[in-house]
Design goal:
- The chain is about 35% helix and about 15% strand.
- It is an alpha/beta fold.
- It folds into 2 domains: about 20-205 and about 270-455, Alkaline Phosphatase, subunit A, CATH 3.40.720; about 215-265.
- The strands form 5 sheets. Strands 1, 4, 5, 6, 7, 8, 11, 12 and 15 form a 9-stranded mixed sheet that branches. Strands 2-3 form a two-stranded antiparallel ribbon. Strands 9-10 form a two-stranded antiparallel ribbon.
- It is globular and about 70 Å long.
């Protein structure tokens, strides 16, 4: 009997090893395989919370400079701000734009370090969304909907592709330590997907995840025995119930937390990074230290198989430059410009940029009119972001806003189309990445017909 069963036992061992090599299959919850040949295996999203001003960073408007101080031309019709019809005069670009790199792509003087990577950037000048308020726009850029309760982009990606590292989550979030994200952690929640796919918030340092380290005096063996007992009791409890996603997620969270106790501190340990690397990310300077640490941490996670990392810049107000664009953007560009440049440099030198998708944007842009003299109000009708890597050709701009940067006009890219395109680059067909919820087949891009933005795939 043992001789005949020997082959089967070997296959069981082989299956276990294969599952260890391919943790996404071990999860067994989502599609786990790309629908199409992916151009990127991993993704990092640099989220500028508060709404950076496209007309001051990536979308030069000569007419805005020419007619600065004058009323909005009647040909643009009535423009509603958050509270009233806009009547303030136009505000010219705060910093000059210059052609950068061999391509001559215009980038503002606000970002001299990023400007060195102009030939790697595909700037999208025609993004647009559906809400003029922060929380709803944060939800939409993260979940595809202006309403709470929908899964975030990272959750969909984790559900669809899993992780390449069994000891780390598929979806990691590095929030701004200042806190105060408009809309809150729902921006990286799993919505109606199983809770195991929500983003795991981490931070640099010796305690990357709060309450992860076991109490002193508890050995690994003792903790393993405790977790095994808990798992046994939880699985008995689960067996009596048809389905309980929250309990299943809790069981998985215990196991993942145990594995992360050794993996997470190693990822967050910068002691083996050279002083040159730390300096390049700005870790040695007060204004760039925090965002630099998180960009470096994001790079280290990507190297270790984390599928999706989202890095936030901006506390309660962040890039929300209502009073003074110059002061606000000078502060936040100084915090982020050098670290982002270092991240792109490292990814390119290591070869990771070829199959890594890098995304930069906020929840919306800013108005061409002034607010309070030197500031700008929210603008969801036309704004900019950029993508790099994943074999996307850089040194170019896709789409355009009108003459003053108010509305997207040419090759318009709605947020849902943006998401569909990003999923395509990751090898996922947004029409096939679905989850049944209350009898409906839900998807990231919503119930309507959504096309990918072909121009971004060049």
């Amino acid at each position: 009997m043992l001789r005949k069963a020997g082959g089967g036992i070997g296959l069981m061992a082989l299956q276990s090893l294969l599952m260890a090599d391919r943790p996404s299959l071990a999860k067994g919850a989502g599609p786990t395989e790309p629908h199409i040949t992916p151009r990127a295996k991993r993704m990092i999203w640099l989220f500028m919370h508060g709404g950076p001003s496209h007309v001051d960073l990536f979308d030069p408007k000569p007419d805005l400079a020419k007619y600065a101080g004058q009323p909005l031309p009647e040909s643009f019709g009535n423009v509603m701000t958050r509270r009233k019809v806009a009547s303030n005069p136009l505000l010219g670009p705060i910093r000059p734009f210059r052609p950068r790199g061999e391509s001559g792509l215009p980038i503002s003087d606000f970002m001299p370090h990023l400007a060195k990577h102009a030939d790697d950037l595909c700037v999208i000048r025609s993004l647009h969304g559906d809400s003029v308020n922060h929380p709803q726009s944060v939800y939409q850029m993260n979940t595809g909907s202006i309403l709470m309760g929908h899964p975030s982009f990272g959750s969909w990606l984790a559900y669809g592709l899993g992780t390449e590292n069994a000891d780390m989550p598929a979806f990691v979030v590095l929030p701004d330590p200042g806190g105060g994200l408009k809309g809150g952690p729902s921006a990286w929640g799993s919505g109606y997907l199983p809770p195991t796919f929500q983003g795991t918030a981490m931070r640099p340092g010796k305690a990357p995840v709060l309450n992860l380290k076991p109490p002193s005096g508890i050995s690994d063996f003792q903790q393993r025995e405790t977790l095994d007992f808990l798992r046994h009791m939880n699985e008995r409890h689960l067996a009596d119930r048809d389905s309980d996603n929250e309990l299943s997620a809790r069981i998985e969270a215990y196991e993942l937390a145990f594995r992360m106790q050794s993996a997470a501190p190693e990822v967050c340990d910068f002691s083996k990074e050279t002083s040159r690397t730390l300096t390049r990310y700005g870790v040695d300077r007060a204004e760039t230290r925090d965002f630099g640490q998180r960009c470096l941490l994001a790079r280290r996670m990507l190297e270790r198989g984390v599928r999706f990392v989202q890095v936030y810049s901006g506390d309660t107000n962040g890039w929300d430059a209502h009073k003074d664009v110059a002061t606000n953007h000078e502060q936040y560009c100084k915090k982020t410009d050098q670290p982002i440049s270092a991240l792109l440099t490292d990814l390119k030198q290591s070869g990771l940029l070829e199959d890594t998708l890098v995304v930069w944007c906020g929840e919306f842009g800013r108005m061409p009119m002034s607010e309070q003299g030197k500031g700008r109000d929210h603008n969801p009708w036309g704004y900019s972001g950029w993508i790099a890597g994943a074999s996307v050709s850089g040194g170019r701009a896709h789409g355009a806003t009108d003459a003053i940067g108010l509305r997207a006009e040419t090759d318009r890219v709605h947020v849902n189309e943006f998401h569909a395109t990003l999923l395509h680059l990751m090898g996922m067909d947004h029409r096939k990445l679905v989850y049944e919820h209350h009898g409906l087949e839900e998807k990231l891009t919503g119930p309507g017909e959504v096309e990918i933005a072909e121009g971004l795939l060049k």
